[in-house]
Structures are given as C-alpha cells and as structure tokens.
Write a structure and sequence with these properties.
heterodimer; A: about 425 residues; alpha/beta; Rossmann fold; Coagulation Factor XIII, Chain A, domain 1; six-stranded mixed β-sheet; 10 helices; 20 strands; about 25% helix; globular; B: about 260 residues; mainly alpha; 12 helices
Amino acid sequence: MSQAPVVFDGVWKKFLRGERHDSLRDLVPALVRRALGRAKPAPELSESEFWAVRDVSFEVQRGEALGIIGPNGAGKSTTLKLLNRILKPTRGRCEIKGRVGALIEVAAGFHPDLTGRENIFLQGAILHMKRREVSAKFDQIVEFAGLQEFIETPVKRYSSGMNARLGFSIAAHLEPDVLLIDEVLSVGDMGFQQKCIDRMGDFKKQGATIVFVSHNLQAVAGLCDRALYLHGGVRALGPAREVIEQYVRAVDRPRSTTAGAVEIVRSELLDEHGWPTATAPSGARLILRVTYQAHAAVEDLLLGFLVYRSTDHLEVYDANFGSEELRIASLRKGDEIVVDFHFRAHLTRGQYHLGCHVFDTRTQEYTDRVVPTGILTVEESRTFSGVADLQVAPVIRETAATAGDPSEAALEHAR
Amino acid sequence: MAEARALIAEQIEYRELLLQMTRRDLLLRYKQTIMGFGWAVFMPLINTIIFSVVFTRVAPIETGLPYPIYAFSGLLAWNFMASSLRFAVVSLTGNANLVTKIYFPREVFPFSAVLVALVDSAIASLVLVALMAWYGVGLSWTVALLPVVVLVHVTLTAALALLLALGNLFYRDVKYLFEIVLSVAMFATSVVYPVDQIGGTLGRILSLNPVTTIIDAYRSVLLRGTLPPAGPFLATAVISALLLVTAWALFHRGELAFAENI
C-alpha cells in the first residue's frame, strides 16, 4: 500500500462515442433481446466506445504538485474527474486520501437569484465547508474576490468575471489536503490571475498535494515539480521542465499558413559555426537560415523574423526587414534566395519558438508564414524566472566602511 | 452493512449541505414569488373547497368527520408526497451542472426536495389547526403517535424520491410517466373520499395501498382519536423501511455513473 495522498493505478476509462439510449423506447427492445438470450456477448470495447484514458498510473506525494498537460481530448479533464470521484474508472484503482478541494467550474453551484452572500454559504456547503468555517472566513472571501460593494447583489447581475472571481475565492479558502485544479487561471483580469497563482503556491507551501491541469505551460512550469504528458495514455511523466519540453516539441510542428507568390521552402537553426542545433546557452550567436522561393515576380517584400516563448506564446521579438536592408528589390519567377538571420539568444532558460514570414507590401498580405520554423531550448541557470537575459552584472562601487572588517560591510551592502 | 454505515456517515457529514440546499429552494421560492409560502397553503385550500362542494352537495358521502377536515387532511398528506416527488424527479437532471462537476453525495438532491415539501406541509398544517378549531374537533392522547406516522410517511416518500430521481436521470420518460401515475393515484388513495366505499374486489385491492394506510393513520391519531389498525400500519412501516434501504442501495450503485449518463 502506497502512502501517497493521490494514487492512480493502471486506470482505464471508457466512454461512449454516440448517444446512449435515452428513452424507454430503446430500453424495452434491449431488455427483450436480453431476456430472450439473443444479445451477443458484449466485447470489451464495442464500436461505439473509445478509451478516454488508457492505462494511466501515477502518484503524487504530500506537498508535491503534478501538472497534467496534453492536447485537447487527451484525457486530462477526465483524469481529474476520476480523481474527484465524479467518474468511476472502468478498470484500475484511483484513490485520494484526505479532504479534497476542487477548483473546477468554481461557480457551478451558484444560483443566479441568490445574492453573493447567500451563494457563498451555498457553494461553501457544496465544497464541504462547515457553516462555521464559512462564517469565519466570510470577510476574507469577499475581500479576496474584491466584491465588498456587491455582496448583497443577486449573482445574476454580476459580470462573468465577478462570478468567476467569487467562485475561485470561495474555493481558495478551503483548507484541502489535496487540491485539484482545472484551467481556472483563465478567469479574471491579470491582477486576479496573479493572486490565484500566488494562492496556489501558498497551498503548496502549506503541504497540500496539487494536481493541476492546464494549457498554460508557463504556469505549470512555475507551480509543478513534476508533469504528466497525456494523450490517451501516458506519453511522459517526470520533472516538469523536461516533460514540457517533450510536449512542446511533439505538438508544435511547423505549420505553413499560406503559400502565395513567395514560399518559405526550408529553414534551419544553426550555431555560429553553421552546424544545426536545437539547444544553446544564453547569449549564444545563432543563425536562422531560411530559403525562399518565388513562384511569381514580386517587389517590395518584407521578411519577418519572430520569436515567442513556447510555454505561453509570449512574444519576445517580432521584426520585419525590408528590401533595402536586404538589397533585394525584386524577385523574378523561379528565383530562390537564402537569407541568414544572425541573432543572439539573450534569453532566459526555457523554450522558444522561432518563426518567419514573407509580407507583400503591395497586396498587404503574407505570402507565406511558417510558425514555428524551429524550437530553441535555451540553457542557463542564473535567472529564477523571466524571459530576457539582460546579462546583469552587479558590481560593488562603494563600501562605506566606518569600523570593523571592511569585507563584512561590503557583504552587508551587497545584500 | 459496513457500506450502509458509511452511506449514513457520509450523509451526516454532509448534513449542512442538505440544509443549505433546502434553504436555497425555500429562499428561492420566497424571492421569486409574491405569495411565497402562501402557495403552500393555497393549493390544498382550493382543492378542499372544490371537493367539499362535490362531496357534500353533488354526491354526499359519509366519512365520519366534517368533510372539509377530511378532505384537507387528506390533501395535506397527499400534497406533501406529490410535491416531494415532483421536485425529486427532476432534482438530478435539473442540477446537471453540479452533478457533472463537483463531488458530494447525490442523495442531497432528492432528500432536500422532501425536506422542502415537509416545511411547506408544516406551514399548511396551520390551516388544519384552524379548521379543527372551527369544527370543534378536539385532540386526544393518540396525537402522541403523530411523529410515528410522519416518520413512516417521510420514509416512504424518501424511498420513492430516490427511485424517481434515479430513474429520470437514466430515462427522461420517467418524469412524464410519473405525472400520469400521480394524477390517477390520488383517486386510488383515500385522499378526498374513502376508497373502501368503492366496494367489491376493486375496493379491497385499493385499500391495500400503503399511502391510504398512512393517510388514514393521520386521520385516526389526529382527528378521530383512535389507533390506526395495527396490522396494516406495521406492514406499511416495514415495507417503507425496506423500500428506503433498497432504493438507497440502488441509488448509491448508480451514483458513479450519473455524470456520464445525465
């Protein structure tokens, strides 16, 4: 027996593809067939069924956060529902020890005709909080949601953001042993989102076990120690950054959006010596070598080069280079040109998508756009978080040594 | 047995949710309607007036009690059951967003439907007290047995509430079937006239109806000052208890399949 608070052991979950017979009209013939013994023995997986979760196993220890990532339909939410005892596994075992808090559809229990205050007590009870507990935390809940003025207003008059903020705030004041989170960060404004992330960090520090399902890989990387990459079955399970890297590389294959007059036929990421590369230390000189082919005569092209962070699509760099800088006034049909974009990877550790495009200024259209054309992993260990490696170099300029050992004072100053 | 204990323990653990859900439904009615709890009194009162006209003027019948009291007491008990079940049958399907999203014991829904109806009936029973005073119907010591009759009635109602909520989740036909059965069943029960007066085999069959036994038991202990017939009443109590255990077990077995079948 494992002592882990969350155990998922060889779990399989089957779903129906279509509609189940929903009325007696369908049930009666089925029962008659069964009674007459004409029903065929049911195969394990009939044609109309599919495995939403296939043989998934993991454990999460106390105080540990596990991120679950994967494309849509990979079984992430199903996994969370299995953990939350809303669904029952077809096969396998899934167990949670202790009080479970779920940040899933945080406003599900709200009734539009009740006031904010009434809904706090109702939702609190649904989340299995004692009335005393809700009363004691009532002011904190309202303040966290920032709804002091509107607490006596029926929830139907709330904006969707207010609704979600109140829902999250109630759930955030549970004191769970195990916290299940599903994409709640998409609610509220930026300030509130940050509050949510901080709150989840607090839970973790207090020793709660967290299972976090999200498409926001940056948030997963920030909160989780380990990550599970799901796609029906388990694709990868391990340290969060490694699993995220694997996921990003698997999912983001180059996509060409339009192929017009000028097509991007090839692109390569090279190191400064011209060798193909995918990882580089921060500040490394790199080259993106792109081959363009003209299918028709064109003039006044803009060649774009862009970089964004893979985990959250944060734009890091996006620039266009005109024909003057590149000294290509026009291309004739059949011309092929190769352009080297030299750049320096002043980036913090993480993964970055590189992309390129061709813009025709006369038609005001992209003739081709390939994103991502390459994925760059930057290795560096100084920064804690962030995106740009500003290469900060702290230097002590003065030490006001009045007495004692000057080196001690210097140390004090540096702090 | 251990499972049954766990079921009840969970229900006790979530008792605040049951109360909050009941409170929600009562609060909503109070907020959404002008009459509020007046509706709880209004419905049985109107029916009592209608049936009083029919059964005292058009086709007078002998009930051994002033007819309005006979009818109102019957309608009060019947309405408790009918409105419990009417709320219960859609209680799971109407809360689909909760059923598919958040874990808690699902029994809360049908049970709170029963509790809401119980509160309504308690309010409407004030009218019965007024009628008793008006017609000079006094209480006797048998009123001490009233809680026992209520308990049996609530047990039977809760069992049916679980079954209907469960059935309607899997087959929406249940709701429509239930409406038809309900409107017929009132006249197959001693609500506004004693069914044994139908006579013959049909009368004998209808008087086996446990709901008739319960409604007549109310009249016995409250209005007539007599004990209900021991045999049928005990049988009804045992049947109700067994039905509740069975219904609860079925409901619990179905519970984990709710989210994917709703």
